[in-house]
Each structure stands twice: as C-alpha cells, then as structure tokens.
Amino acid sequence: MTLAERLLPELEQQLANTRKVLHEVPDGRNDFAPHEKSMPLTRLAGHTAELVGFATLHLTVPSINMGTPEDPRKILRMGLKADLLTEFEGMAARLVETLKATSDAAFDEEYTLLRQGNVVIRTTRYGAYRTLFLDHMIHHRAQLGVYLRLMGEKVPATFGPSADEK
User: Fold this and answer.
1) Per the annotation, does 136 bind a ligand?
2) Binding of a divalent metal cation: at which residues (predicted)?
3) Domains plus CATH for the chain?
4) Residue 166, CB half-sphere, CA atoms under 13 Å: how many?
5) Residue 156 belongs to what H/E stretch?
6) CA pair distance 132, 69, nearest whole angstrom
7) Is 140 annotated as a binding residue?
8) Whole-model pTM?
9) Rounded distance, CA 77 to CA 47, Å?
10) What are the tens digits of pLDDT across the range 11-31?
C-alpha cells in the first residue's frame, strides 16, 4: 500500500467531520466571537474550510510565501453558508484526487512555508500535510464546535456522540 492509500480513509473521515460542523454554522451570525481576542465566526469558518485548499498546495508546490502577491492560497470568509460549503466541497474533491496522485517519494520532498520571505516552517510535504493541514483543520473545527455551543446551535458528533446527537 502506498502512503497516499493509507492516508485516504483518514482524510475522508476528517473531511466528513468538518463538513458536518460547517453545515451547522448559522447564517447571519458572521460577526459572533466569544472573546475580543477570538476570530469572528466568518473568519473561523472560512479558515477551517480553506485549509483543505491549502493542503492541495502543500502536496503540489515546493513552498508558499504568505502575504505576497505570489501567495497562491485562496482565502475564504463565510458569506452564506451554502457558498462556503460549495467552496469546501470543490476543494475537498481536488484534495482527494491530489492525495491519490501523490507518490511516496513526493511526501519526502522538502516543503517550506514563508511569511513575506521569512521561513515559518521547513519540513517535508508529509509534515506539511499532517501539521499545517490535518492537525490545523481539526484544531479549528473544534473551535467551531465551541462557537456553535456558545451560540446555542447544534454541535454535531465528530469523535463519538455529542450532547445534541444520541
């Protein structure tokens, strides 16, 4: 089995969990933030979704230089939930196909994330996929769950049941 074949079931499960959480994000509450230091809902939901697109880049380009005209990332802010979900689904489909096409050797290639020319992290493509994408998406998805709870919205089950789903 290739590494991509081993990672694919986990990716599909994590995309399904993220999809469930994004589906519960309410329209019309975009400015909600639980604390002045917290991202507003519009940015947190958008960032959680856009990470899927970033993962495709981690697997296909040698580096990203954030905050420059060459930055290839698509930055999302939630307007309407339906539009955010459409963007998420398109990026998720591209990521699944990209992962399937990624060779074991490609996972060992160097990947660098920069911010305006300064190195943020230098790792392998595998390291970028795990840390900059998968762990990062799970982290922000959990934050969204807290936002949903604080807004009185349903929190879907992601790892075992939630209080809202028996």
Assistant:
1) yes
2) 47, 136, 140
3) 3-151 (1.20.120.450)
4) 0
5) none
6) 21
7) yes
8) 0.93
9) 7
10) 999 999 999 999 999 999 999
